[in-house]
Write a structure and sequence with these properties.
Blueprint lengths: L6 H12 L2 H6 L1 E9 L2 E4 L1 H14 L2 E11 L2 E10 L6 E10 L2 E8 L1
Length: 109
């Protein structure tokens, strides 16, 4: 199923699919934040490094299939399949947007 995503979120998922860490970092605001696996990555350079590390550890694909909004955050649920423990899994992505960029992203189970 294809869902319609806000432009900033679509840019994030498109960049992630490209496998290019600089493109993923560019989807965020200058001081964007990513919370993933108990770690916080602040700023585009830290986000780029987070993507480099993830790309070295695993290969994966993501297919967003559900979107909702609550308390100023947009939640996207995506089916993720890859070479990581626990694959496949449905992950929740909580986005805070700032215009056409992602200001904050938290990834949870």
């Amino acid at each position: 199923m294809t869902i319609r995503l806000p432009r900033a979120i679509e840019a994030y998922f498109d960049a992630d699919r490209s496998g290019e860490p600089n493109a993923v970092a560019a989807a965020f605001t200058e001081n964007g934040i990513v919370k993933d696996k108990g770690e916080i990555h602040t700023g585009r350079e830290a986000i780029r490094e987070w993507m480099v590390e993830a790309g070295q550890l695993y290969t994966y694909t993501m297919e967003p299939f559900l979107i909702s909004t609550e308390n100023g955050k947009t939640q996207v649920t995506a089916h993720v399949v890859g070479t990581f423990p626990g694959s496949p899994i449905d992950l929740r992505f909580f986005f805070v947007l700032a215009g056409d960029k992602v200001a904050e992203l938290e990834i949870t189970v």
